[in-house]
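Hey,
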Amino acid sequence: MIRVLIADDHPIVREGLKQILSETDDIIVVNEAANGQEVLNYAWNNAYDIVLLDISMPGRDGLEVLRELKHTKPKLPVLILSMYPEEHYAIRVLRGGASGYLTKSSAPDELISAIRKVASGRKYISSTLAERLTYELDRDSDKPVHESLSDREYQVMHMIASGKTIKEIADELCLSVKTVSTYRSRIMEKMNMKNNAEIVLYAVQNKLVD
């Protein structure tokens, strides 16, 4: 039996996932977490075969939780299930130690297959993502500017590029406005940019936002 910990801050999403997985004979949802700290508490105190983890959660987001899990529970497979298209986060989370990346628009059968594959110790990536990974490996060693950002900086940059204000970002990430402003300053410095408009333009040109 594959023991699963579901992590998503939306109750309706967790219920939907449990319903899908309840129709299998070999997968059982043992616990569910609504925020990053709950994920870590469950993972530290219980045994799971896989964590199904959302990226966008209040407090400690999925990227931070993934990093912590890979540090404290390196053998615990993590399958990222996100609303964001693959090109936004997939390569970053795979480099961070995730065993797979799946969008929430995926079919239930694909989710079940991904869970079984990841729980068996293998990686799960779609054919589209496999092509993108090949491109990344074959590409010139000159990395794009955004690759120099930390996970949190990248997340803030992505949210700015999506049109969110500093206050909206602070509220969503459970951070102070001052902290988000500091991240914004670091992003500007690392990417050699002067304002939000340049961030938006860069993100669009590099297909980091829809």
